[in-house]
Amino acid sequence: MQKRHENSLNDLLEQVAYEGFASVEKWQMTRWYEQERFSVGIRRDIRNRWDELSSELTWIKNKTIVFAEVKGQILLMHDHVFWGDDN
Description:
By secondary structure, this protein is of the alpha+beta class. The chain has helices at 3-19, 26-32, 40-56, and strands at 21-25, 66-70, 73-77. It has a three-stranded antiparallel β-sheet. Strand 2 (66-70) and strand 3 form a beta hairpin. The chain is globular. The model has no long low-confidence stretch (mean pLDDT 92).
């Protein structure tokens, strides 16, 4: 990963930490990692980086980062709450 991409990823993770979520274009994420797909390896690396960030920002230590793909975007979030059908 190029240094500039690593910096962008770190900024993205800090946004998740402070705002609860962030998104990035799927093509951009895979380009940062020089991959064709949003693979298990990418997700593992992001989780490891999240754990490293939690040593600096201790209030996120018990928060798990999760991923979703929505319309070509990779959504990263913690403390997710989804509501079902309210009928």
